[in-house]
Amino acid sequence: MATPLHPDCTLAFPPHPAWVRAAREAVRTLLAATRRPDLEDAAVSLTSEAVTNAIKACQAKACRAHITLSAEWADPQHLRVFVHDGAAGLPLRRRLTSLEDESGRGLMLIEHEADAWGVCTHGPGPGKATWFVLGGRDRDRSGLPAKSPAGCLECKELVAARRAADTDGDQEKVTDAIVAIRSHFRDAHILPAWPR
């Protein structure tokens, strides 16, 4: 079922658990508007996990910066969701010690259900973005993009350019640098993970 590209959805909110529901509903509304109910259950569930992880990370690090949820169409079939928080450090994938554990399942669920996923530290500030893609490709279960961003020289150069723009205080250059980082990450690290 081909769906034309549609407007993206972005929501910024404080790191408080009350916002998890609003984030889920934003993604649910986007999918309803684009007539993609086939992605709804997975997209809403994974969004909830990623936003909950971001809120917990912010609370643990006393980070008050807003969390940003972005849901966009990578192409007519693939929904890409980014959840950016300002808390320093990367999320940990923990092993469950018991089926009764109340936490520790978020990244495992994202890895299991998403067609592609990862964590990117190339956004603004000290935080990170957890991202995932849904749309029906065969999963290789590795959880890694075709080309890992770890050690990517172009990523490092783009991040250095963004930091330089920050230092100069030129907001237009900062915006251009963020767009360049995001475009490179999409083109070099996310899209190659999909079969042609």
TrEMBL record:
Annotated Histidine kinase/HSP90-like ATPase domain residues: 13-117
Source species: Streptomyces hesseae
Leader sequence residues: none
The keyword Lyase belongs to this UniProt entry's keyword annotation: no
Cited InterPro entries: Anti-sigma-factor_SerPK (IPR050267), HATPase_C_sf (IPR036890), HATPase_dom (IPR003594)
Keyword terms of this UniProt record: ATP-binding, Kinase, Nucleotide-binding, Serine/threonine-protein kinase, Transferase
GO molecular function annotations of the record: ATP binding
The protein's name in its UniProt record: ATP-binding protein
Gene3D superfamilies: Histidine kinase-like ATPase, C-terminal domain
